[in-house]
Amino acid sequence: MAAPHSERTDDWWRSAAIYQVYPRSFSDGDGDGTGDLAGVRARLPYLAELGIDAIWFTPWYLSPLADGGYDVADYRTIDPAFGTLGEAEKLIAEARELGIRTIVDIVPNHVSDRHAWFRAALAAGPGSPERELFHFRPGRGEHGELPPNDWPSQFSGATWTRVPDGEWYLHLFTPEQPDLNWAHPAVRREHEDVLRFWFERGVAGVRIDSAALLAKDPALADLTEGADPHPYIDRDELHDIYRSWRAVADAYGAVFVGEVWLPDAERFARYLRPDELHTAFNFGFLACPWEAARLRRSIDDTLAEHAPVGAPATWVLCNHDVTRTVTRYGRAETGFDFAAKRFGTPTDLALGTRRARAAALLTLALPGSVYVYQGEELGLPEADIPRERIQDPMHHRSGGVDPGRDGCRVPLPWTADAPHRGFGSGAEPWLPQPAGWSAYAADRQSGDPASMLSLYREALRLRRREPGFGDGPLTWLPSGPEVLAFARPDGLLCAVNLGAVSVDLPQHRAVLLASGPLDADGRLPRDTAVWLRA
Question: Annotated active-site positions, please?
């Protein structure tokens, strides 16, 4: 196992490699078929050897799991399926002893319909103070039978649900996720208290789910095309909320990463001002197809967006909502779009794996922090889940058209020849592992120097050893139209060939790492990346 990571400065997050854990699918420590904190604790040596700086956990709180844990019933209680608060505290401390920080997920736009606040609101009735914490309204139409407005759902389906007393409540996601009223001071106080609760337990950062959706037009007016401001996306009131949050985080030396989907670069950058969020996810790069010109434009746009506020960029290829990289890059359409997801889309996994290996080196060489979703380091493909086993509400609310997100959430394979590929020793995993999953098992890849896992380990080792690969300047080098070649500080170079024919390498003194074999004459083959020392 690698030695514990050395502590970085207070700016560790500017260049960090952060590993995303989806707890249900990471490792099952108690044998009930669901991943849990005991499973993560047992795998901490694996994560330390991988070479990461922090773990981001998707929600581990008490939840009925109507949306994979993003329907939180109690932020101060760990869901019993995952463990206990005491186990979470031990996990945070044990990870830190290995030099790994912990980032937790907060879902401020909504709570579960099982949350104490919402249960009290339903019981209290129209006009009550309890209902003021949410968006309850009478319906339209002669008898109030129509929803209060025409807002579309973030998932398929309706955004309003009627309760027995005739009022309706707003939910931008599922009916089990009622939206909170962020104009109410009690909502703000409660979330700041939740932040303190976790910071006091050693959490180093918070990822903010749907960060641009919290504030709503007080009138809840209908959505009109081109409305400015938008009635529920990127409203100016949000920034006062996040300035208050930043003051809380600064008192503990903690950091924020926001889930902010915005096409306007200037408005996106506002969330990253020095007194608001530290970083935000880069969804443009994640969704970008495997095309040199578009990737270069995405990289340039990202760096330009962040420069005015001095914030570091973040880079990610995949997460718990997105088609896995190996599968996506093997398709005819290599970009990602939620609206385009369909069953039976063909893919060439050999091609996708080759490109995913190159994309890993590209991403890890870019300035800023990088996120690695669990299983990407194993080269896992998207799994085809039998329709009767799909649990994701995106599938069900689409009328069965959208395959949903379960295909990237399948429990990990740890040991090729063990029951359930080492995920757990007891019950069948909550989602079925595909035939052939053993080929991707961590134990099988660990001893193979040509495996995806070995590539990630070596790349992360070099990235940690070479400060020039962290936050800092990037300079493009002359290259053909199908090549991305750039210099980083300290003589570090990265070149990626996205074209159909091999190309010459930039001038260099040494090859540090390549995503695949170079040609016999030293040229860079198609869909291959290389790190060089100039």
Answer: 209, 259
